[in-house]
Amino acid sequence: MPTLTKPQTTPARVRPARRRNAEVGRRSMIVRALVAWAIALITMFPVAWLALGAFRDSGDVFSGKIFTPLTVHNFVYVLTEIPFPRYLLNSAIVSVSVTVVALLFHSMAAYALARLRFPGRDLGFTMILSTMLVSMPVILVPLFLIIKWLGLVDTYGGLIVPAIFNAFGIFLLRQYYLNIPRELEEAAELDGCGYPRLYWNVILPLSRPILASLGVLFFLANWNSFIWPLAITQDPKLWVIQLGISSLQGQYSSSWGYILAGALLAAVPTVVVFLLGQRWLVDSLKTSGSK
């Protein structure tokens, strides 16, 4: 009587399939790596061209030559012959002041909108969000008239006060506060904490990651602002860094070496701030978007 034997899957049939899958995965990874490197090189090309042009003479910037003599004359001229350090200082004063004050006020507003219950809360939040649809050029004239009525034209106050309000910051903080467990607040209330101590001792310490990421965004936005400083300042002593670079372009239209050196100096603080805060920036965006 013949015996039935169970067909066996030999390892020799399995190994080629696994080998093919591994080969396909390896090729896919190589293709994705090449695409990523290509995108990175395209993105970094303007920065590399800016850095290289800042160390060249103005006549060699658009010459198309790769290897030309490098010099630091452009940086020496920008830092000594024009008030570029003053422009950097003004930008630092405005950016840091706006960032600190905005984080304090925005966290208060966001906490109230996320945790407190009062009539018109949702309507107020909707009105705040609606301001994100209005661009700066639309409100430039009425905002200038208000600042002029307040006597803040050609002052640091005129540069700082209108830049404090930011609907995106309030929105981002509110979304973050919605994720904080209510048990923490209830425990603090049992210990006798009122709203001011609850906000200062419980909410703010828990908000350090999102405040750090927002601080990076506010600093970068105000450091690179141009339209409002152009409208509100006439005194060159109050010019920020972007106005200073713009004045270089108008006064030395053929001296691109000076312009590129100024642009590179202006980009250094933004790169440093971004590198210091990029971890909190990415983490907070992921957390606030989860609810």
Structure description:
This protein has a domain of 164 residues: MetI-like fold, CATH 1.10.3720. The mean pLDDT is 83. Helix content is 74%, strand content 0%. The longest helix has 44 residues. It is an all-alpha fold. Belongs to the binding-protein-dependent transport system permease family. Its main location: membrane. This is Multiple sugar transport system permease protein. It comes from Spelaeicoccus albus.
**Cα distance spanning the termini:** 70 Å
Principal-axes geometry comes out as: flat
**Residues in helices, as a percent range:** over 70%
In what range is the share of β-strand residues?
Answer: under 5%
Number of DSSP strands?
Answer: 0
**Assigned CATH superfamily of the domain at 91-235 and 271-289:** MetI-like
Domain ABC transmembrane type-1: 88-277
InterPro entries: MetI-like, MetI-like_sf
Keywords: Cell membrane, Membrane, Sugar transport, Transmembrane, Transmembrane helix, Transport
Subcellular location: Cell membrane
